Amino acid sequence: MRIDEVFERAGAARKLPVSFEIFPPKGELTLERGREVGSELAAFDPSFISVTYSAGGSGNKGATTKIAEAITAESGIPTVAHLTCISLFRDEAARKIEKLRAHGIENVLALRGDIPADDDRSNPHPADFRYAKDLIPLLVDAGFCVGAAAYPEGHIDCDDLDRSVRHLREKQDAGASFLVTQLFFDNEYFYRFRERADRAGITVPISAGVMPFMSKQQISRMVFMCGASLPSPVIKLLARFEDDPVALRQAGIDYACRQLEDLAEHGVDGLHVYTMNRADVASACMSAVRV
Ligand code: FAD
Fold it and tell me: Which of 32, 116, 140, 153 is the most buried (most CB within 10 A)?
């Protein structure tokens, strides 16, 4: 099923769409393990599952399409295959689009991808697509329902939030029909972003992305990678459970559940849980919002 239809049906039934993100596991059993993860998470009946695409050297980028296809075939849960365009030329993009179609994929999250660390930002990686908005029309023309990424605190490379939202509007204008946000730990950022997006004429549904923190290393990696702010309640939890990884993990899941409950109460269009392929995360988050 197309994701625009998922949102339409949920709206008509007054039900909040809750989706999960998974990533293709690394290693030789990528596809098999990916299918296993997909079926574990599909058991919680999410509105859709999105499967990330690794443009880097993890060796698992070929698995995204097959995992997304397998989840829908085996569970009936709609899926979204992510696709990045950072180093794509038009002929490769056409081949990738053909592959997505051949595997019966209906929904694609169109992304630029992160600029490789060794790239010169003033003279970016040679490719035919500079921004995600350049990839979106190709996918729309090929018949896919296309989503795009949104940044409640602004994208890490863009220090002006209004400009970041204008770039988001360009993705809607290019044909994106739903948006999924980067993780954030302070819901107030999301609420302020939603007002800005409204003012900028963004009308497509925006799913709020939430990721439970699992450890101090994981949270610092995330924060440095994407520029999300760490509010004081999170810092206090990290300090309190510094020497107790099990308690810290549980505190991270509980914190995410409270974030999700609050977002649901504030009438968001959808919730997107970064599950990190973990059934316990999916289970706790789903129980928090589907009572
Ligand atoms: P864009 O929308 O192209 O934006 C990139 C930068 O360019 C931003 O700073 C933006 O403000 C700026 N910009 C956009 N348009 C213009 C313009 N017209 N003029 C000037 N500047 C402009 N990465 C992966 O590798 N694989 C994944 O599967 C993946 N999944 C993700 C899922 C979600 C929900 C999110 C939020 C991110 C995901 N990412 C993934 C990370 C993403 O690739 C990075 O955040 C990347 O740096 C930006 O991607 P984008 O699609 O938002 O890029």
Answer: 153
